[in-house]
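New to this. Please check this fold:
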Amino acid sequence: MSETVTDILALDRVGLWGLLDIAIVSVLIYELLKVVRRTHTVQILIGGGVVIGLYYASRFTPLQTLNWLIRDMFGYIVFAAIVIFQGDIRRALVHFGRAPFFRYFSRAETTDETIEEVVVALQMLADQRIGAIVAIERDIGLRNYVESGIPLDATVSYDLLVTVFRPSSPMHDGAVVIQQDRVAAAACFLPLTVNPRVSKDLGTRHRAAIGLSEETDAIALVVSEETGRLSLVLNGQMEQDLDADQLRYRLEALMLNRKPVAAERDEKGFDT
């Protein structure tokens, strides 16, 4: 009775490696639970837990037949799990592959593709004079705005962006938010600027882009429905009437810290 909690749990013998081991396992379990939540896998795991519970119960009781049956089943459980959970295993591996640690190594290539897809999509929309607004997250999170829209969590592609902003689409009125090189949500509501110095000629999309850039460090891209002009908004400042090359150079400079020769040549007309 004189033993303390520390003695019972042997906490005094848990070293740095033990704490690291516990932390890694905890993160893995947490991420696994995030993947399987709200899916049929939860019910299967509960069923598996019941079988395991029955097995241990049979070891300490005279239920020999039950113990023999479950013990013999264990040899086939691994193969059955691979077949039953193949979709969930694939989804879990993809989920872990998107972890920040791994994204660090492939971010430049992925961001390059994202920039190209966005530029192509906005140029197509501009040629057809279809209004659009795209917000690209940087250091300050845009979760509040993502939650106001329709979640997508899709790969950035010009087909998707053009489809979203078609006038016939129910999501065309709001903004598309891009997080970590993925389309997080569409039809998102952005805050309108209250700056009295903003030109009265600017419409709601441009005011929303300025409002977002005043509150966050996000890059807001706008296609004017009236003129088809491309605009980039950053830190409350708007760069208007960009062509596709200028927009690409600006996004590369802002998102990849590149300064192409052509971008340096055009730098006089643009403020970073």
Observations:
- Confidence is low (pLDDT under 50) at residues 260-272.
